[in-house]
């Protein structure tokens, strides 16, 4: 199986561990990821509310490159990137005005785009292409005894998701059950972490993160697994700020789902960039049977 791979700009900075662990995990499963040539930032979902047509054009440049680079589906790992690229496809298909405006902008740099490049989330590939049975067969270290709180975030399945239930996604639950983990009932799994509001309305964002962390703690989760670089950063990097604001003492490991899944397939922690995590994952590592 081969896919074009769009890492997204967070994968070169705060979300570097997501990119590293994704490449290691997919290689272990025999999936080839071909990085998109000369890709640019997708513009992120927040830019749509500022300059919508510009945002479509920024995202469409990546899609036009993917269209020219190969027939493989384009895979994204960031929820926001997945949403932005998918939204561009949908609007170009539904609006002649958007289609013409975007291609007019692309034409200035010698590019064009027909609006038809399939965009996939990496979890979609794992669940529907690799398949849960094949995934389970490749496990070398079952995650028995690890209590996992799957945190999907607000953009995993909304508004552009097509591979899971919009309001009650279960793909991450299914993956970790197949890997042998105990998946806790995590009712906050779709609630927003505050996103970039952490930069503008910190008090509100900290309150949102506090709820997510408290729910995981109340459910006795050993680890929260995330599928978005911003979600992961807010829940992990801002735990000390949450603790000082709300008088709590959270020390809950927050990992990318690709990191924890990679451990189940015998990938070394270093190759999954677990050493880059800010909250120690030592207890999680120790809980996984050899």
Would you give an account of this structure?
The structure is a single chain. The chain is an alpha/beta fold and 290 residues long. The chain folds into two domains: 2-121, Up-down Bundle (Glutathione S-transferase Yfyf (Class Pi), Chain A, domain 2); 137-287, 3-Layer(aba) Sandwich (Rossmann fold), CATH 3.40.50. Helices cover 47% and strands 10% of the residues. The protein contains twelve helices and eight strands. The chain has helices spanning 16-28, 52-69, 79-94, 96-108, 122-137, 171-178, 197-200, 202-218, 229-237, 239-246, 257-264, 282-287, and strands spanning 2-6, 32-35, 74-76, 119-121, 147-151, 182-183, 223-226, 254-256. The strands form two sheets. A four-stranded parallel sheet has the order 2-1-3-4, with helices on both faces. The longest helix has 18 residues, at 52-69. The relative contact order is 0.15.
Topology (elements, then pairings):
Layout: E1 2-6, H1 16-28, E2 32-35, H2 52-69, E3 74-76, H3 79-94, H4 96-108, E4 119-121, H5 122-137, E5 147-151, H6 171-178, E6 182-183, H7 197-200, H8 202-218, E7 223-226, H9 229-237, H10 239-246, E8 254-256, H11 257-264, H12 282-287
Parallel strand pairs: 1-2, 1-3, 3-4, 5-6, 5-7, 7-8
Helix pairs in contact: 1-11, 2-3, 2-4, 3-4, 5-6, 8-10
């Amino acid at each position: 199986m081969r896919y074009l791979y769009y890492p997204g700009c967070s994968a070169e900075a705060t979300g570097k561990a997501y990119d590293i662990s994704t490449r290691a995990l997919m290689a272990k499963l025999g999936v080839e990821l071909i990085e998109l040539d000369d890709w640019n930032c997708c513009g992120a979902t927040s830019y749509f509310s500022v300059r919508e047509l510009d945002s479509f054009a920024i995202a469409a440049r990546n899609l036009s490159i993917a269209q020219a680079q190969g027939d493989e589906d384009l895979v994204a790992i960031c929820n926001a990137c997945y949403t932005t690229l998918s939204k561009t496809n949908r609007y170009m298909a539904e609006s002649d005005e958007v289609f013409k405006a975007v291609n007019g902008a692309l034409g200035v740099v010698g590019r064009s785009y027909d609006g038809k490049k399939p965009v996939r989330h990496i979890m979609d590939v794992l669940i529907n292409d690799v398949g849960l049975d094949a995934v389970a067969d490749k496990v070398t270290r079952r995650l028995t005894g690890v209590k996992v709180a799957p945190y999907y975030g607000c953009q995993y399945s909304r508004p552009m998701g097509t591979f899971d239930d919009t309001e009650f996604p279960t793909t991450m639950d299914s993956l970790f059950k197949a890997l042998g983990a105990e998946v806790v009932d995590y009712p906050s799994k779709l609630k927003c972490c505050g996103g970039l509001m952490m930069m503008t309305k910190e008090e509100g964002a900290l309150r949102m993160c506090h709820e997510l962390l408290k729910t995981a703690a109340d459910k006795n989760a050993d680890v929260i697994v995330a599928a978005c670089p911003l979600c992961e950063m807010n829940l992990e990097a801002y735990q000390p700020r949450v603790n000082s604001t709300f008088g709590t003492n959270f020390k809950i490991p927050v990992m990318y789902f690709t990191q924890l899944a990679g451990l189940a397939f015998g990938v070394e922690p270093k190759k999954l960039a677990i050493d880059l995590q800010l909250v120690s994952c030592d207890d999680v590592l120790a809980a996984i049977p050899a």
